[in-house]
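Weekly sync, protein design subgroup
Attendees: M.S., D.O., the rotation student, P.L. (late)

Item 1: inverse folding check
M.S. brought a backbone from last month's batch and wanted to see whether the design step gives back something sensible before we order anything. D.O. pointed out we never logged the input encoding, so this time it goes straight into the notes. C-alpha coordinates as presented (545 positions):
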Protein backbone atom coordinates (compact mmCIF):
# COMPACT_ATOMS: atom_id res chain seq x y z
CA UNK A 1 0.00 0.00 0.00
CA UNK A 2 0.97 3.64 -0.18
CA UNK A 3 2.81 5.00 2.83
CA UNK A 4 0.31 6.33 5.35
CA UNK A 5 1.13 8.90 8.03
CA UNK A 6 -2.08 9.85 9.87
CA UNK A 7 -2.60 13.17 11.60
CA UNK A 8 -2.84 13.03 15.37
CA UNK A 9 -6.48 12.14 16.10
CA UNK A 10 -9.13 14.60 17.22
CA UNK A 11 -11.80 16.85 15.78
CA UNK A 12 -10.61 18.61 12.64
CA UNK A 13 -10.66 18.99 8.88
CA UNK A 14 -7.51 18.83 6.78
CA UNK A 15 -7.34 20.46 3.36
CA UNK A 16 -3.55 20.33 3.04
CA UNK A 17 -3.20 16.83 1.65
CA UNK A 18 -1.72 17.02 -1.83
CA UNK A 19 1.62 18.17 -0.44
CA UNK A 20 2.17 14.61 0.86
CA UNK A 21 4.01 12.29 -1.51
CA UNK A 22 2.87 8.76 -2.31
CA UNK A 23 6.41 7.77 -1.30
CA UNK A 24 9.84 9.24 -0.60
CA UNK A 25 11.89 9.51 -3.83
CA UNK A 26 14.11 6.41 -3.92
CA UNK A 27 17.24 8.32 -4.94
CA UNK A 28 17.31 10.06 -1.56
CA UNK A 29 18.21 6.78 0.16
CA UNK A 30 20.84 5.65 -2.36
CA UNK A 31 24.33 6.51 -1.14
CA UNK A 32 25.67 6.31 -4.71
CA UNK A 33 23.10 8.80 -6.03
CA UNK A 34 23.77 12.54 -6.40
CA UNK A 35 20.40 12.94 -4.66
CA UNK A 36 21.43 11.12 -1.48
CA UNK A 37 20.09 13.44 1.20
CA UNK A 38 22.67 12.84 3.93
CA UNK A 39 22.03 14.80 7.12
CA UNK A 40 18.82 16.40 5.81
CA UNK A 41 15.15 15.50 6.17
CA UNK A 42 13.60 17.49 3.30
CA UNK A 43 14.50 19.25 0.06
CA UNK A 44 14.24 22.90 1.07
CA UNK A 45 17.87 23.35 2.11
CA UNK A 46 19.32 20.49 0.09
CA UNK A 47 21.00 20.23 -3.30
CA UNK A 48 19.28 20.76 -6.64
CA UNK A 49 19.50 17.00 -7.25
CA UNK A 50 17.45 16.36 -4.11
CA UNK A 51 14.96 19.08 -5.03
CA UNK A 52 14.63 17.66 -8.56
CA UNK A 53 13.91 14.20 -7.15
CA UNK A 54 11.15 15.66 -4.98
CA UNK A 55 9.75 17.58 -7.98
CA UNK A 56 9.70 14.46 -10.17
CA UNK A 57 7.94 12.47 -7.43
CA UNK A 58 5.35 15.22 -6.97
CA UNK A 59 4.58 15.35 -10.70
CA UNK A 60 4.29 11.56 -10.87
CA UNK A 61 1.95 11.52 -7.87
CA UNK A 62 -0.10 14.44 -9.19
CA UNK A 63 -0.65 12.62 -12.49
CA UNK A 64 -1.87 9.52 -10.66
CA UNK A 65 -4.16 11.67 -8.52
CA UNK A 66 -5.66 13.59 -11.46
CA UNK A 67 -6.09 10.50 -13.65
CA UNK A 68 -8.04 8.82 -10.85
CA UNK A 69 -10.24 11.88 -10.30
CA UNK A 70 -10.86 12.15 -14.06
CA UNK A 71 -12.59 8.76 -13.91
CA UNK A 72 -14.61 9.65 -10.84
CA UNK A 73 -15.81 13.19 -11.57
CA UNK A 74 -18.67 13.82 -13.99
CA UNK A 75 -18.06 16.02 -17.02
CA UNK A 76 -18.62 19.57 -15.90
CA UNK A 77 -17.79 18.69 -12.31
CA UNK A 78 -15.12 20.54 -10.41
CA UNK A 79 -12.17 19.97 -8.14
CA UNK A 80 -10.86 22.50 -5.62
CA UNK A 81 -7.36 22.02 -4.21
CA UNK A 82 -5.76 23.94 -1.37
CA UNK A 83 -2.07 23.18 -0.87
CA UNK A 84 1.22 24.71 0.22
CA UNK A 85 3.07 26.32 -2.66
CA UNK A 86 5.44 29.07 -3.73
CA UNK A 87 5.51 31.50 -6.67
CA UNK A 88 7.38 30.69 -9.88
CA UNK A 89 10.96 31.93 -9.66
CA UNK A 90 11.27 31.67 -5.88
CA UNK A 91 13.94 29.18 -4.81
CA UNK A 92 12.84 26.29 -2.60
CA UNK A 93 15.36 27.37 0.05
CA UNK A 94 13.23 30.46 0.71
CA UNK A 95 10.19 28.47 1.86
CA UNK A 96 9.20 29.39 5.45
CA UNK A 97 8.32 25.77 6.22
CA UNK A 98 11.93 24.92 5.41
CA UNK A 99 13.01 26.83 8.51
CA UNK A 100 10.91 24.48 10.64
CA UNK A 101 12.16 21.37 8.82
CA UNK A 102 15.75 22.53 9.31
CA UNK A 103 15.09 23.11 13.01
CA UNK A 104 13.67 19.60 13.37
CA UNK A 105 16.69 18.22 11.53
CA UNK A 106 19.01 20.21 13.80
CA UNK A 107 17.26 18.76 16.85
CA UNK A 108 17.67 15.25 15.45
CA UNK A 109 21.39 15.82 14.89
CA UNK A 110 21.71 17.12 18.46
CA UNK A 111 20.12 13.87 19.61
CA UNK A 112 22.64 11.96 17.49
CA UNK A 113 25.49 13.77 19.20
CA UNK A 114 24.03 12.84 22.59
CA UNK A 115 23.68 9.18 21.58
CA UNK A 116 19.88 9.14 21.73
CA UNK A 117 19.54 8.06 18.08
CA UNK A 118 21.92 6.92 15.32
CA UNK A 119 23.11 9.23 12.56
CA UNK A 120 22.11 6.56 10.03
CA UNK A 121 18.52 6.99 11.18
CA UNK A 122 18.63 10.65 10.18
CA UNK A 123 20.35 9.89 6.87
CA UNK A 124 17.62 7.37 5.98
CA UNK A 125 14.74 9.66 6.93
CA UNK A 126 13.09 12.17 4.58
CA UNK A 127 9.77 13.95 4.96
CA UNK A 128 7.56 13.07 1.94
CA UNK A 129 6.29 16.66 1.59
CA UNK A 130 6.57 19.09 -1.30
CA UNK A 131 5.39 22.64 -2.01
CA UNK A 132 4.78 23.09 -5.75
CA UNK A 133 4.78 26.15 -8.00
CA UNK A 134 1.90 27.18 -10.31
CA UNK A 135 4.07 26.26 -13.30
CA UNK A 136 4.66 22.71 -12.01
CA UNK A 137 0.97 22.15 -11.38
CA UNK A 138 -0.03 23.66 -14.74
CA UNK A 139 2.36 21.32 -16.57
CA UNK A 140 0.76 18.27 -15.00
CA UNK A 141 -2.80 19.49 -15.68
CA UNK A 142 -1.99 20.17 -19.34
CA UNK A 143 -0.25 16.81 -19.67
CA UNK A 144 -3.31 14.97 -18.32
CA UNK A 145 -5.66 16.88 -20.61
CA UNK A 146 -8.89 16.11 -18.74
CA UNK A 147 -9.24 19.33 -16.75
CA UNK A 148 -9.23 23.05 -17.44
CA UNK A 149 -7.63 25.35 -14.87
CA UNK A 150 -10.45 27.77 -14.03
CA UNK A 151 -8.55 29.64 -11.32
CA UNK A 152 -5.10 29.37 -9.79
CA UNK A 153 -3.91 31.81 -7.16
CA UNK A 154 -1.08 32.21 -4.69
CA UNK A 155 -2.49 33.43 -1.37
CA UNK A 156 -0.85 34.73 1.79
CA UNK A 157 -2.21 32.86 4.80
CA UNK A 158 -0.65 35.44 7.13
CA UNK A 159 -3.23 37.99 5.99
CA UNK A 160 -5.69 36.31 8.36
CA UNK A 161 -3.24 35.92 11.23
CA UNK A 162 -1.41 39.23 11.26
CA UNK A 163 2.28 39.85 10.73
CA UNK A 164 3.44 38.22 13.97
CA UNK A 165 4.12 34.48 13.85
CA UNK A 166 3.53 32.32 16.93
CA UNK A 167 6.46 29.91 16.64
CA UNK A 168 5.22 27.73 19.51
CA UNK A 169 1.89 27.21 17.71
CA UNK A 170 3.72 26.40 14.48
CA UNK A 171 5.76 23.71 16.19
CA UNK A 172 2.62 22.28 17.82
CA UNK A 173 0.92 22.24 14.40
CA UNK A 174 3.91 20.45 12.93
CA UNK A 175 3.85 17.84 15.67
CA UNK A 176 0.12 17.25 15.21
CA UNK A 177 0.59 16.75 11.48
CA UNK A 178 3.81 14.76 11.42
CA UNK A 179 3.93 12.72 14.59
CA UNK A 180 2.05 9.97 12.76
CA UNK A 181 0.74 8.03 15.69
CA UNK A 182 -2.94 8.49 14.83
CA UNK A 183 -3.95 8.70 18.48
CA UNK A 184 -7.71 8.42 18.74
CA UNK A 185 -9.78 10.87 20.73
CA UNK A 186 -13.52 11.14 20.94
CA UNK A 187 -15.38 14.20 22.16
CA UNK A 188 -19.04 14.40 22.84
CA UNK A 189 -21.59 11.65 23.05
CA UNK A 190 -24.11 10.49 20.46
CA UNK A 191 -27.33 8.56 20.94
CA UNK A 192 -26.73 5.29 22.74
CA UNK A 193 -23.82 3.59 21.02
CA UNK A 194 -22.20 0.40 22.24
CA UNK A 195 -19.54 -0.73 19.77
CA UNK A 196 -18.14 -4.24 19.57
CA UNK A 197 -14.73 -4.68 21.18
CA UNK A 198 -12.19 -3.31 18.71
CA UNK A 199 -8.65 -4.40 17.88
CA UNK A 200 -7.64 -8.05 17.66
CA UNK A 201 -7.02 -8.95 21.31
CA UNK A 202 -8.36 -11.85 23.37
CA UNK A 203 -11.79 -10.28 23.88
CA UNK A 204 -12.04 -8.53 20.51
CA UNK A 205 -15.00 -8.98 18.20
CA UNK A 206 -12.54 -9.98 15.47
CA UNK A 207 -11.45 -13.00 17.53
CA UNK A 208 -14.93 -13.84 18.87
CA UNK A 209 -17.42 -13.45 16.05
CA UNK A 210 -17.56 -16.96 14.62
CA UNK A 211 -21.28 -17.21 15.38
CA UNK A 212 -21.98 -14.22 13.16
CA UNK A 213 -19.78 -15.82 10.51
CA UNK A 214 -21.88 -18.97 10.59
CA UNK A 215 -25.04 -16.88 10.54
CA UNK A 216 -23.78 -15.30 7.32
CA UNK A 217 -22.98 -18.73 5.88
CA UNK A 218 -26.46 -20.01 6.73
CA UNK A 219 -28.01 -17.04 4.92
CA UNK A 220 -25.68 -17.21 1.93
CA UNK A 221 -27.73 -19.64 -0.17
CA UNK A 222 -30.98 -17.72 0.31
CA UNK A 223 -29.29 -14.38 -0.43
CA UNK A 224 -27.74 -15.80 -3.60
CA UNK A 225 -31.10 -17.13 -4.76
CA UNK A 226 -33.08 -13.97 -4.09
CA UNK A 227 -30.52 -11.73 -5.83
CA UNK A 228 -30.39 -14.05 -8.83
CA UNK A 229 -34.19 -14.21 -9.07
CA UNK A 230 -35.38 -10.77 -7.97
CA UNK A 231 -32.66 -8.18 -8.65
CA UNK A 232 -32.63 -6.58 -12.11
CA UNK A 233 -29.05 -5.34 -12.06
CA UNK A 234 -29.00 -4.00 -15.60
CA UNK A 235 -31.99 -1.73 -15.14
CA UNK A 236 -30.73 -0.53 -11.75
CA UNK A 237 -27.43 0.75 -13.13
CA UNK A 238 -28.88 2.24 -16.31
CA UNK A 239 -28.51 5.74 -14.88
CA UNK A 240 -25.47 5.22 -12.64
CA UNK A 241 -22.50 4.92 -15.03
CA UNK A 242 -22.02 1.19 -14.34
CA UNK A 243 -21.66 1.84 -10.61
CA UNK A 244 -23.38 -0.49 -8.14
CA UNK A 245 -23.59 0.82 -4.58
CA UNK A 246 -23.88 -1.44 -1.54
CA UNK A 247 -24.09 -0.48 2.13
CA UNK A 248 -23.39 -2.78 5.05
CA UNK A 249 -25.16 -1.29 8.06
CA UNK A 250 -23.77 -2.26 11.44
CA UNK A 251 -20.56 -3.53 9.85
CA UNK A 252 -18.58 -3.64 13.13
CA UNK A 253 -14.84 -4.33 12.72
CA UNK A 254 -14.73 -7.33 10.40
CA UNK A 255 -13.89 -9.84 9.12
CA UNK A 256 -17.50 -11.01 8.68
CA UNK A 257 -18.52 -7.89 6.78
CA UNK A 258 -15.83 -8.61 4.17
CA UNK A 259 -17.08 -12.18 3.60
CA UNK A 260 -20.65 -10.95 3.24
CA UNK A 261 -19.72 -8.15 0.83
CA UNK A 262 -17.56 -10.42 -1.31
CA UNK A 263 -20.39 -12.93 -1.62
CA UNK A 264 -22.90 -10.23 -2.63
CA UNK A 265 -20.47 -8.76 -5.17
CA UNK A 266 -19.94 -12.11 -6.83
CA UNK A 267 -23.67 -12.84 -7.06
CA UNK A 268 -24.55 -9.38 -8.38
CA UNK A 269 -21.73 -9.51 -10.94
CA UNK A 270 -22.83 -12.97 -12.09
CA UNK A 271 -26.43 -11.77 -12.46
CA UNK A 272 -25.20 -8.75 -14.44
CA UNK A 273 -23.28 -10.99 -16.84
CA UNK A 274 -26.24 -13.34 -17.33
CA UNK A 275 -28.35 -10.33 -18.29
CA UNK A 276 -26.10 -9.84 -21.30
CA UNK A 277 -23.86 -7.08 -20.00
CA UNK A 278 -22.29 -5.19 -22.88
CA UNK A 279 -20.69 -2.22 -21.15
CA UNK A 280 -17.87 -3.91 -19.25
CA UNK A 281 -17.65 -4.91 -15.61
CA UNK A 282 -19.41 -3.11 -12.78
CA UNK A 283 -17.73 -0.58 -10.52
CA UNK A 284 -18.70 -1.63 -7.00
CA UNK A 285 -18.82 0.93 -4.19
CA UNK A 286 -19.18 -0.55 -0.71
CA UNK A 287 -20.08 1.69 2.22
CA UNK A 288 -19.17 0.25 5.62
CA UNK A 289 -21.39 1.95 8.19
CA UNK A 290 -21.56 1.82 11.97
CA UNK A 291 -21.60 4.20 14.92
CA UNK A 292 -18.80 6.76 15.03
CA UNK A 293 -17.42 4.93 18.08
CA UNK A 294 -16.86 1.79 16.00
CA UNK A 295 -13.21 0.80 15.52
CA UNK A 296 -12.95 1.86 11.87
CA UNK A 297 -9.14 1.80 12.15
CA UNK A 298 -9.17 -1.97 12.65
CA UNK A 299 -11.85 -2.36 9.98
CA UNK A 300 -9.94 -0.55 7.26
CA UNK A 301 -6.59 -2.03 8.27
CA UNK A 302 -8.19 -5.44 7.61
CA UNK A 303 -9.62 -4.65 4.16
CA UNK A 304 -8.77 -7.50 1.74
CA UNK A 305 -5.89 -6.34 -0.50
CA UNK A 306 -7.42 -8.11 -3.51
CA UNK A 307 -10.89 -6.58 -3.08
CA UNK A 308 -12.73 -5.60 -6.25
CA UNK A 309 -14.62 -2.66 -4.83
CA UNK A 310 -14.10 0.90 -3.67
CA UNK A 311 -14.47 1.11 0.11
CA UNK A 312 -15.72 4.00 2.22
CA UNK A 313 -16.71 4.41 5.85
CA UNK A 314 -19.97 6.07 6.87
CA UNK A 315 -20.23 6.78 10.62
CA UNK A 316 -23.66 7.21 12.15
CA UNK A 317 -26.75 5.42 13.43
CA UNK A 318 -28.91 3.55 10.91
CA UNK A 319 -31.91 4.82 12.86
CA UNK A 320 -31.89 7.82 10.56
CA UNK A 321 -30.69 8.88 7.11
CA UNK A 322 -27.09 8.06 6.20
CA UNK A 323 -27.03 8.44 2.40
CA UNK A 324 -28.43 10.70 -0.34
CA UNK A 325 -31.81 9.91 -1.88
CA UNK A 326 -31.90 6.98 -4.31
CA UNK A 327 -28.16 6.39 -4.04
CA UNK A 328 -28.04 2.74 -2.97
CA UNK A 329 -28.80 -0.41 -4.94
CA UNK A 330 -28.50 -2.94 -2.13
CA UNK A 331 -28.40 -2.71 1.66
CA UNK A 332 -27.12 -5.52 3.86
CA UNK A 333 -27.31 -5.74 7.63
CA UNK A 334 -26.34 -8.74 9.71
CA UNK A 335 -26.89 -9.09 13.46
CA UNK A 336 -27.31 -5.36 14.01
CA UNK A 337 -31.05 -4.60 14.03
CA UNK A 338 -31.56 -6.48 17.28
CA UNK A 339 -29.94 -3.44 18.92
CA UNK A 340 -32.64 -0.96 19.89
CA UNK A 341 -32.03 2.77 19.60
CA UNK A 342 -32.57 3.02 23.35
CA UNK A 343 -33.87 1.14 26.37
CA UNK A 344 -37.67 1.53 26.69
CA UNK A 345 -38.25 4.29 29.25
CA UNK A 346 -40.93 2.37 31.17
CA UNK A 347 -38.31 -0.16 32.31
CA UNK A 348 -36.65 2.45 34.54
CA UNK A 349 -39.85 3.88 36.03
CA UNK A 350 -40.52 2.35 39.45
CA UNK A 351 -44.18 3.33 39.16
CA UNK A 352 -44.60 1.52 35.83
CA UNK A 353 -45.87 -2.07 35.46
CA UNK A 354 -42.89 -2.50 33.12
CA UNK A 355 -40.26 -1.68 35.76
CA UNK A 356 -37.72 -4.47 35.22
CA UNK A 357 -36.36 -4.84 38.75
CA UNK A 358 -33.65 -7.49 39.12
CA UNK A 359 -33.60 -8.33 35.40
CA UNK A 360 -31.46 -7.11 32.52
CA UNK A 361 -33.61 -8.16 29.55
CA UNK A 362 -37.17 -9.16 28.71
CA UNK A 363 -36.89 -12.90 27.95
CA UNK A 364 -37.70 -14.02 31.51
CA UNK A 365 -39.57 -10.89 32.57
CA UNK A 366 -43.26 -9.94 32.70
CA UNK A 367 -45.49 -9.38 29.68
CA UNK A 368 -45.43 -5.64 30.40
CA UNK A 369 -41.64 -5.61 30.03
CA UNK A 370 -41.77 -7.72 26.87
CA UNK A 371 -44.45 -5.45 25.38
CA UNK A 372 -42.29 -2.39 26.07
CA UNK A 373 -39.39 -4.02 24.21
CA UNK A 374 -41.66 -5.04 21.32
CA UNK A 375 -43.05 -1.50 21.00
CA UNK A 376 -39.55 0.00 20.95
CA UNK A 377 -38.43 -2.50 18.30
CA UNK A 378 -41.38 -1.68 16.06
CA UNK A 379 -40.79 2.06 16.47
CA UNK A 380 -37.09 1.65 15.61
CA UNK A 381 -37.79 -0.67 12.68
CA UNK A 382 -40.16 1.90 11.17
CA UNK A 383 -37.50 4.59 11.45
CA UNK A 384 -34.94 2.24 9.88
CA UNK A 385 -37.15 1.26 6.94
CA UNK A 386 -38.37 4.81 6.29
CA UNK A 387 -34.76 5.98 6.09
CA UNK A 388 -33.80 3.14 3.74
CA UNK A 389 -36.87 3.85 1.57
CA UNK A 390 -35.37 7.30 0.91
CA UNK A 391 -31.89 5.96 0.16
CA UNK A 392 -32.57 2.87 -1.98
CA UNK A 393 -33.47 3.15 -5.66
CA UNK A 394 -36.75 1.65 -6.85
CA UNK A 395 -36.03 -2.00 -7.57
CA UNK A 396 -33.15 -2.10 -5.09
CA UNK A 397 -33.07 -4.56 -2.22
CA UNK A 398 -32.48 -4.90 1.52
CA UNK A 399 -31.13 -8.13 3.00
CA UNK A 400 -31.45 -8.45 6.78
CA UNK A 401 -30.08 -11.15 9.07
CA UNK A 402 -31.33 -10.71 12.62
CA UNK A 403 -31.86 -12.86 15.71
CA UNK A 404 -35.45 -14.03 15.79
CA UNK A 405 -37.75 -16.91 16.57
CA UNK A 406 -40.94 -18.41 15.08
CA UNK A 407 -44.40 -17.07 15.78
CA UNK A 408 -45.99 -18.93 18.68
CA UNK A 409 -42.76 -19.73 20.54
CA UNK A 410 -42.61 -18.05 23.95
CA UNK A 411 -39.77 -15.61 24.55
CA UNK A 412 -38.67 -17.54 27.66
CA UNK A 413 -37.56 -20.36 25.35
CA UNK A 414 -34.98 -18.19 23.58
CA UNK A 415 -31.43 -19.61 23.98
CA UNK A 416 -29.96 -16.10 24.22
CA UNK A 417 -32.20 -15.52 27.24
CA UNK A 418 -30.31 -18.26 29.08
CA UNK A 419 -27.10 -16.28 28.66
CA UNK A 420 -28.73 -13.00 29.69
CA UNK A 421 -30.15 -14.65 32.82
CA UNK A 422 -26.71 -16.07 33.67
CA UNK A 423 -25.12 -12.64 33.34
CA UNK A 424 -27.89 -11.19 35.51
CA UNK A 425 -27.32 -13.93 38.09
CA UNK A 426 -23.60 -13.05 38.16
CA UNK A 427 -24.45 -9.38 38.65
CA UNK A 428 -26.78 -10.19 41.57
CA UNK A 429 -24.06 -12.38 43.12
CA UNK A 430 -21.71 -9.40 42.89
CA UNK A 431 -24.36 -7.14 44.46
CA UNK A 432 -24.75 -9.60 47.36
CA UNK A 433 -21.03 -9.42 48.16
CA UNK A 434 -20.89 -5.63 47.80
CA UNK A 435 -18.94 -5.40 44.54
CA UNK A 436 -21.77 -3.41 42.95
CA UNK A 437 -25.08 -1.98 44.15
CA UNK A 438 -28.39 -3.76 43.53
CA UNK A 439 -29.78 -0.45 42.28
CA UNK A 440 -27.23 -0.62 39.47
CA UNK A 441 -28.74 -3.90 38.33
CA UNK A 442 -32.28 -2.56 38.61
CA UNK A 443 -31.38 0.41 36.41
CA UNK A 444 -29.64 -1.66 33.74
CA UNK A 445 -31.35 -3.25 30.74
CA UNK A 446 -29.81 -4.65 27.57
CA UNK A 447 -31.30 -2.82 24.54
CA UNK A 448 -31.53 -5.94 22.37
CA UNK A 449 -34.61 -7.68 20.99
CA UNK A 450 -35.33 -10.82 18.96
CA UNK A 451 -38.36 -10.38 16.71
CA UNK A 452 -40.82 -12.80 15.13
CA UNK A 453 -41.76 -12.92 11.43
CA UNK A 454 -45.20 -11.54 12.32
CA UNK A 455 -43.72 -8.48 14.07
CA UNK A 456 -41.44 -7.68 11.15
CA UNK A 457 -44.17 -8.26 8.57
CA UNK A 458 -46.48 -5.83 10.38
CA UNK A 459 -43.88 -3.06 10.25
CA UNK A 460 -43.07 -3.66 6.58
CA UNK A 461 -46.74 -3.54 5.60
CA UNK A 462 -47.26 -0.42 7.70
CA UNK A 463 -44.39 1.36 5.90
CA UNK A 464 -45.69 0.31 2.47
CA UNK A 465 -42.49 0.95 0.50
CA UNK A 466 -41.12 -2.59 0.32
CA UNK A 467 -42.32 -5.97 -0.85
CA UNK A 468 -41.26 -9.08 1.06
CA UNK A 469 -39.41 -11.24 -1.44
CA UNK A 470 -38.29 -13.87 1.07
CA UNK A 471 -38.52 -14.37 4.82
CA UNK A 472 -37.12 -17.46 6.47
CA UNK A 473 -36.34 -18.77 9.92
CA UNK A 474 -32.94 -20.47 9.86
CA UNK A 475 -30.96 -22.51 12.35
CA UNK A 476 -27.38 -21.20 12.63
CA UNK A 477 -26.44 -24.39 14.48
CA UNK A 478 -26.69 -26.25 11.18
CA UNK A 479 -23.25 -24.87 10.34
CA UNK A 480 -21.82 -25.19 13.85
CA UNK A 481 -23.00 -28.64 14.89
CA UNK A 482 -25.43 -29.73 17.57
CA UNK A 483 -23.06 -29.32 20.52
CA UNK A 484 -22.70 -25.78 21.82
CA UNK A 485 -19.41 -24.47 23.19
CA UNK A 486 -20.65 -22.43 26.15
CA UNK A 487 -17.22 -20.92 26.79
CA UNK A 488 -17.13 -19.58 23.23
CA UNK A 489 -20.66 -18.23 23.61
CA UNK A 490 -19.68 -16.25 26.70
CA UNK A 491 -16.54 -14.94 24.95
CA UNK A 492 -18.71 -13.95 22.01
CA UNK A 493 -21.12 -12.15 24.34
CA UNK A 494 -18.27 -10.28 26.00
CA UNK A 495 -16.85 -9.17 22.63
CA UNK A 496 -20.23 -7.80 21.61
CA UNK A 497 -21.47 -6.35 24.90
CA UNK A 498 -18.50 -5.46 27.08
CA UNK A 499 -18.82 -1.79 26.22
CA UNK A 500 -22.40 -1.46 27.43
CA UNK A 501 -21.63 -3.24 30.72
CA UNK A 502 -18.51 -1.11 31.18
CA UNK A 503 -20.38 2.16 30.70
CA UNK A 504 -22.94 1.24 33.35
CA UNK A 505 -21.01 -0.78 35.94
CA UNK A 506 -17.42 0.41 35.40
CA UNK A 507 -14.44 -1.28 33.77
CA UNK A 508 -13.07 -2.53 37.09
CA UNK A 509 -15.81 -5.18 37.49
CA UNK A 510 -15.90 -6.58 33.94
CA UNK A 511 -13.39 -9.40 34.47
CA UNK A 512 -15.22 -10.38 37.66
CA UNK A 513 -18.59 -10.40 35.88
CA UNK A 514 -17.54 -12.65 33.03
CA UNK A 515 -15.30 -14.75 35.27
CA UNK A 516 -18.31 -15.57 37.46
CA UNK A 517 -20.36 -16.34 34.36
CA UNK A 518 -17.69 -18.77 33.11
CA UNK A 519 -18.14 -20.67 36.40
CA UNK A 520 -21.79 -21.24 35.43
CA UNK A 521 -20.92 -23.07 32.18
CA UNK A 522 -22.44 -26.41 33.25
CA UNK A 523 -25.62 -24.70 34.44
CA UNK A 524 -25.85 -22.72 31.19
CA UNK A 525 -25.27 -25.82 29.08
CA UNK A 526 -28.11 -27.66 30.84
CA UNK A 527 -30.50 -24.71 30.41
CA UNK A 528 -29.63 -24.41 26.73
CA UNK A 529 -30.59 -28.05 26.20
CA UNK A 530 -34.17 -27.30 27.26
CA UNK A 531 -34.43 -24.08 25.24
CA UNK A 532 -35.87 -23.72 21.74
CA UNK A 533 -33.39 -25.03 19.17
CA UNK A 534 -35.03 -25.14 15.77
CA UNK A 535 -34.44 -21.70 14.31
CA UNK A 536 -33.28 -18.52 15.98
CA UNK A 537 -32.25 -16.49 12.97
CA UNK A 538 -34.46 -14.46 10.65
CA UNK A 539 -33.38 -13.83 7.06
CA UNK A 540 -35.43 -11.17 5.30
CA UNK A 541 -35.14 -9.96 1.70
CA UNK A 542 -37.09 -6.81 0.76
CA UNK A 543 -37.46 -5.01 -2.56
CA UNK A 544 -38.00 -1.26 -2.89
CA UNK A 545 -41.29 -0.60 -4.70
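Designed sequence read out in the meeting:
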Amino acid sequence: MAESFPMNGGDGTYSYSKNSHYQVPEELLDKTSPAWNEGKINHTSSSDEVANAYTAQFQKDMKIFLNARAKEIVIGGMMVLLMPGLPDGVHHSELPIGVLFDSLCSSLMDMVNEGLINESQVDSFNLPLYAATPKEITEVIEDIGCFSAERMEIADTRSKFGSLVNVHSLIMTLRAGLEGRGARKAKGKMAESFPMNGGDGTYSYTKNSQYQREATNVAKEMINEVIAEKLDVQSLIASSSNSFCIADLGCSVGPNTFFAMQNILEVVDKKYMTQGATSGSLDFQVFFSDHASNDFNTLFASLPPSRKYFAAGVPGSFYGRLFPRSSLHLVHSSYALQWLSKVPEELLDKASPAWNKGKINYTSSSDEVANAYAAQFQKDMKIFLNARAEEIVVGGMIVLIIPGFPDGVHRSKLPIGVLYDSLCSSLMDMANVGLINESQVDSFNLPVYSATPKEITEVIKDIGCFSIERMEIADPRSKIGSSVNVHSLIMHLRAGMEDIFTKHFGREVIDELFGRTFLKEAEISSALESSYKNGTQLIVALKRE
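Discussion: The chain has 16 helices and seven strands. The chain has two domains: 26-178, 210-408+448-475+535-544.
Action: P.L. to compare against the previous round before Friday.
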